[in-house]
UniProtKB/TrEMBL annotation:
Pathway: Cofactor biosynthesis; nicotinate biosynthesis; nicotinate from nicotinamide: step 1/1. Its EC number is 3.5.1.19. This is Nicotinamidase. It holds the Pfam family Isochorismatase. GO terms for molecular function: metal ion binding; nicotinamidase activity. It is an enzyme of class 3 (hydrolase).
Length: 210
């Protein structure tokens, strides 16, 4: 039986399945590599597949190493708001920034690189952390006539959640494929993320429902 394919009004958004976020990486998400086989299968169902890629310059403002005396996972206030500090990760051109070796990328129609500006972070695939600078993804999807988006990848409680919430704000019907994501879960961040997504109208599904 041929795989069901979604039409041109649908898109799969694969968030940050990169070496830095997988086991052995600088900011490893527990069991992050387990999403890869599911995402490879999901990508067969969609005409439109978009990959996002954290792509930070060296010395990025979100790195704890850029703030003397600060440690990873501490929070600071920046001109655009609160910022969690991270270990150096996904540095542009590095092994950490590369996609997981087993992630099938050939069906992707677009790769969106985010976090590219040294002075502002970007969890969301749609809008950077200053909440004013667009990545261009919304315009791209609108131009294609996309109305619905499904999200999978890393990490559920940060880049996936922010992207899903912004997808809803941009007018897309939005689904997060729960078992095709993994979370960092710092101090209850996963439960908070699901609550915020639900309040925004994001739908929570499993891969066998897609």
């Amino acid at each position: 039986m041929p795989l069901k394919r979604y039409g041109p009004d649908c898109a799969l958004l694969v968030v940050d399945v990169q070496n830095s976020f997988c086991p052995g990486g600088e900011l490893a998400v527990p069991d992050g590599d387990e999403v890869v086989p599911l995402i490879n299968h999901l990508s067969l169902l969609f005409e439109n597949v978009v990959l996002t890629q954290d792509w930070h310059p060296r010395g990025h403002i979100s790195f704890a190493s850029s703030h003397p005396g600060k440690q990873p996972f501490q929070n600071i206030d920046l001109p655009y708001g609160a910022q969690t500090l991270w270990p150096d990760h996904c540095v542009a051109g590095s092994h950490g920034a590369a996609f997981h070796a087993e992630l099938e990328t050939e069906r992707a129609r677009l790769i969106v690189r985010k976090g590219i500006h040294a002075a502002v972070d970007s969890y969301s695939a749609f809008v950077e952390a200053d909440r004013t600078t667009p990545t261009g993804l919304g315009g791209y999807l609108n131009t294609l006539g996309v109305k619905k988006v499904w999200l999978a990848g890393l990490a559920t409680d940060f880049c996936v959640a922010w992207s899903a919430i912004d997808a809803r704000a941009a007018g897309f019907e939005t689904f997060v494929v729960e078992d095709a994501c993994r979370a960092i879960d710092i101090d209850g961040s996963l439960a908070d993320a699901w609550m915020t997504m639900r309040q925004a109208g994001v739908k929570r599904v499993r891969s066998d429902e897609v």
